[in-house]
């Protein structure tokens, strides 16, 4: 069975990917350089989409989170967190 789970905490995004084993990825909000939303017509109808998170200082420079409910709102929240953290540095 293949499964992918996401958790948005106060400091980071945690992604657990399971398929014949388990991979856990953690992305600190300070590592996020850009967030984009991809939505097909079917995605818009279902009110979900894919978040494409670009990062610096991680093993992968791009992470895709599929089937996210209300991805535009999540993007706005992540952008807000990035802006707030950028001002505190």
Your description of this structure?
The protein is α+β, with helices and mostly antiparallel strands and 89 residues long. It has 2 helices and 6 strands. The protein has a 3-stranded antiparallel sheet, with no helix packed on it. The longest helix has 18 residues, at 71-88. It starts with a strand and ends with a helix. The relative contact order is 0.18.
**Would you identify the regions where 5 or more consecutive residues have pLDDT less than 50?**
none
Distance between the termini: 42 Å
The amount of helix comes to: 25-40%
Order of neighbouring strands in the sheet with most strands: 1-2-3
From N to C, what is the helix and strand string? EEEEHEEH
Tertiary shape? globular
Radius of gyration: 13 Å
The average pLDDT value, as a whole number, equals: 87
For the secondary structure, the number of strands is 6
Secondary structure tally, helices: 2
Class by SSE composition: alpha+beta
Strand content: over 45%
Largest beta sheet, briefly? 3 strands, antiparallel
Task: Please outline what is shown here.
With 89 residues, the chain is α+β, with helices and mostly antiparallel strands. It has helices spanning 41-46, 71-88; strands at 3-8, 12-18, 22-28, 32-38, 48-55, 62-69. The N and C termini lie far apart (42 Å).
Structural descriptors:
single chain, 89 residues, alpha+beta, 3-stranded antiparallel beta sheet, 6 strands, 27% helix, globular
SSE map:
Blueprint: E1 3-8, E2 12-18, E3 22-28, E4 32-38, H1 41-46, E5 48-55, E6 62-69, H2 71-88
Antiparallel strand pairs: 1-2, 2-3, 4-5, 5-6
């Amino acid at each position: 069975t293949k499964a992918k789970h996401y958790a948005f905490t106060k400091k980071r995004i945690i992604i657990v990917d399971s398929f014949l084993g388990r991979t856990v990825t953690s992305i600190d909000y300070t590592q996020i350089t850009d967030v984009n939303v991809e939505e097909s017509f079917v995605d818009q109808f279902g009110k979900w989409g894919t978040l494409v998170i670009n990062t610096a200082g991680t093993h992968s420079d791009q992470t895709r989170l599929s089937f996210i409910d209300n991805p535009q709102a999540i993007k706005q929240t992540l952008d807000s967190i990035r802006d707030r953290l950028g001002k505190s540095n």
